[in-house]
User: Which sequence fits this backbone?
């Protein structure tokens, strides 16, 4: 058995497809009209209740019990792009977690929660550029130096 995709409901497949392509740069893999899939493994389905065989009134918006996660090497650039999108609703402000990663949460057009975080290798680079030693970064992030080196060389 193999994992193939995360499939989320879309009220308007065209609006949702455009949202993910424009804001996240996702590349289309298949377009089947009311179902589209992206090369990263995310798929969108219009008429999800019909597909799943559940009552339409059982569909929930903004359930807050899962999120789609993205990371970017240009977190500040993404925030600028987000600022140019008044149609995108955020869930709070940017948060810097104890390990140093900055994240922001937002909703897609159908109310699905999305987290966009700073690429972890970029977090390490930011700390090193500020003058911290690898040992200090390791302590701050609670990550071994070996794992920090992996983050620095990951593509």
Assistant:
């Amino acid at each position: 058995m193999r994992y193939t995709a995360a499939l989320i409901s879309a009220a308007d497949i065209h609006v949702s497809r455009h949202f993910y392509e424009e804001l996240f740069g996702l590349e289309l893999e298949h377009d089947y009209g009311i179902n589209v899939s992206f090369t990263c493994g995310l798929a969108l389905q219009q008429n999800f209740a019909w597909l799943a065989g559940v009552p339409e009134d059982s569909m929930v918006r903004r359930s807050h019990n899962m999120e789609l996660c993205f990371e970017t090497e240009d977190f500040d650039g993404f925030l600028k792009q987000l600022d140019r999108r008044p149609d995108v609703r955020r869930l709070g402000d940017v948060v810097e977690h104890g390990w140093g990663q900055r994240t922001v949460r937002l909703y897609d057009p159908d109310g699905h929660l999305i987290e966009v975080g700073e690429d972890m290798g970029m977090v390490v680079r930011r700390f090193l550029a500020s003058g911290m030693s690898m040992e200090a970064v390791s302590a701050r992030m609670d990550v071994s130096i070996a794992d920090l080196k992996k983050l620095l060389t990951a593509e």
